[in-house]
């Protein structure tokens, strides 16, 4: 939670069109024509003739024996004949050839993905379809199978070889993913999301108007009204991973709000007087944070489309709900979703609950959760301003409605509190001990290394872990990630806060 009313919460495609089976040779049984039209020539015969004539240029076998006829499409302008490359009679996935014929049957163009002279990788024993599907599901962290899943044996090109593999189409939640699984060892060779995605445009505070303006002077909430001073702080951004519906719903964020923001052109350029502005803020900053986490090598931390309830509460507070695993941002004071630091802080709670379900069962654990949220929010704010800036303040814009400090801050990460004397039993206050230690890691090693150490360490914790366990876990993470290269400084940083790493 953003404010000090924290209650420990343990409460609870687009699919690729399937290829017509490759049961039709260049001569022999005629495959169904995909679109009928008046054709005064034998399209397949004309296509075969063209392929053989250009076989040397494209590397085709002279007899075209590994090209299997798929379909013919007739239009008013031209005829298109498609072939599938095969290996040992099985599909070589994603490698096809099309022949474009004019109205007289003359070849206008050959488009080819054909791979000549392929060496086939041998395997001793082939796993079954069900085993391949399970391997794909595990790699995607998907726990439930779906009757729409499909599996097909064939070959993929890897390092110049035809590798026996299964193509597995996996439906899990709202994701539709195509995975290629090695037919012997079960390794997932590659995968891709088959859902349609769109990139939108929008305007946001990045991270907030106080940081980008340099001070809070002249910046007032004024009941969400626009002002020249605030509008001048808007930044144009790209909104990645949108699902193409026009709503702010994508790979890592699903916005639910009273505004129910929609754009058929994927343009979401609002000022703060619009209720949709906070929707764009929440989408952009959470999506950016998840992409950052994945750029550090973590693809299994909160890798989902999190539901974010924007402006659905009138409280001057925001929170993560473990039972529903969604986020809620309130509108009291400055709307919480107008400040990237606040957005990131709440996303931090979701991250920890994803890594350690039920985390924060003790006061120290709760303080660690608040401290990590402040670390995540502050370093994110810093990164959007300068790679070398360490401001030690979170939520400057949000705090203009209640803070009298300069700059206004929800909390600071440089109060030099020392454990255990500074413990007061309130998780936000006590969290300043933990957040400063983590922030000092970023100042010592840089944001990327510090964040990697902290995220890696979370996997070692339990729901009841406290400061000492957390510090030891960070030191262990350094051993795992960097062979202990930062151990001495880690010990010193936590010692300054009164926390042992032993």
Automatic annotation (TrEMBL):
Residues annotated as signal peptide: 1-25
Sorted UniProt keywords: Hydrolase, Metal-binding, Metalloprotease, Protease, Signal, Zinc
GO molecular function: metalloendopeptidase activity; zinc ion binding
Domain FTP: 71-110
Pfam families assigned to the protein according to its UniProt record, in alphabetical order: FTP, Peptidase_M36
GO biological process: proteolysis
A cellular component annotation (GO) from this entry: extracellular space
Keyword Lipoprotein: no
Protein name, as recorded: Zn-dependent metalloprotease
Annotated source species: Tumebacillus permanentifrigoris
């Amino acid at each position: 939670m953003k404010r000090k009313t924290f209650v420990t919460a343990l409460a609870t495609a687009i699919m690729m069109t399937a290829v017509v089976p490759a049961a039709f040779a260049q001569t022999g049984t005629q495959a169904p024509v995909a679109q009928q039209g008046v054709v005064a020539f034998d399209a397949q015969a004309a296509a075969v003739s063209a392929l053989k004539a250009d076989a040397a240029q494209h590397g085709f076998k002279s007899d075209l024996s590994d090209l299997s006829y798929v379909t013919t499409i007739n239009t008013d302008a031209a005829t298109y004949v498609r072939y599938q490359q095969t290996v040992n009679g099985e599909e070589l996935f994603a490698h096809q050839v099309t022949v474009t014929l004019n109205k007289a049957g003359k070849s206008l163009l050959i488009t080819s993905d054909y791979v000549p002279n392929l060496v086939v990788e041998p395997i001793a024993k082939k796993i079954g379809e069900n085993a391949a599907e399970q391997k794909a599901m595990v790699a995607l962290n998907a726990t439930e199978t779906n009757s729409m899943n499909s599996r097909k044996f064939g070959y993929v090109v890897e390092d110049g070889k035809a590798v026996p593999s299964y193509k597995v189409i996996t439906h899990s939640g709202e994701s539709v993913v195509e995975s290629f699984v090695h037919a012997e060892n079960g390794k997932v060779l590659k995968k891709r999301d088959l859902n349609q995605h769109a990139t939108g445009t929008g305007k946001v505070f990045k991270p907030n108007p106080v940081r980008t303006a340099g001070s809070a002077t002249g910046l007032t909430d004024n009941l969400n009204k626009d002002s020249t001073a605030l509008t001048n702080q808007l930044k144009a951004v790209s909104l990645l991973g949108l699902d193409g519906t026009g709503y702010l719903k994508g790979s890592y964020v699903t916005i639910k709000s009273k505004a129910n923001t929609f754009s058929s052109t994927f343009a979401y350029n609002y000022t703060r007087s619009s209720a949709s502005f906070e929707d764009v803020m929440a989408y952009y900053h959470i999506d950016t944070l998840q992409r950052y986490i994945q750029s550090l090598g973590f693809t299994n931390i909160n890798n989902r489309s999190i539901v974010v309830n924007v402006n659905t509460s009138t409280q001057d507070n925001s929170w993560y709900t473990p039972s529903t695993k969604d986020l809620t941002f309130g509108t009291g004071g400055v709307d919480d979703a107008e400040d990237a630091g606040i957005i990131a802080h709440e996303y931090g709670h979701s991250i920890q609950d994803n890594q350690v379900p039920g985390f924060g069962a003790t006061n120290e654990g709760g303080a660690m959760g608040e401290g990590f949220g402040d670390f995540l929010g502050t370093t994110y704010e810093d990164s959007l301003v300068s790679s070398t800036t360490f401001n030690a303040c979170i939520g400057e814009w949000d705090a203009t409605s209640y803070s009298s400090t300069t700059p206004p801050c929800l909390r600071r990460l440089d109060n030099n509190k020392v454990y255990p004397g500074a413990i007061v039993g309130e998780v936000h206050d006590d969290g300043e001990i933990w957040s400063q230690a983590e922030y000092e890691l970023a100042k010592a090693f840089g944001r990327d290394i510090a964040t990697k150490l902290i995220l890696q360490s979370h996997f070692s914790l339990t729901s009841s872990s406290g400061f000492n366990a957390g510090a030891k876990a960070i030191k262990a993470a350094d051993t795992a990630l960097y062979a202990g290269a930062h151990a001495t400084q880690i010990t010193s940083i936590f010692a300054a806060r009164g926390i042992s790493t032993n």
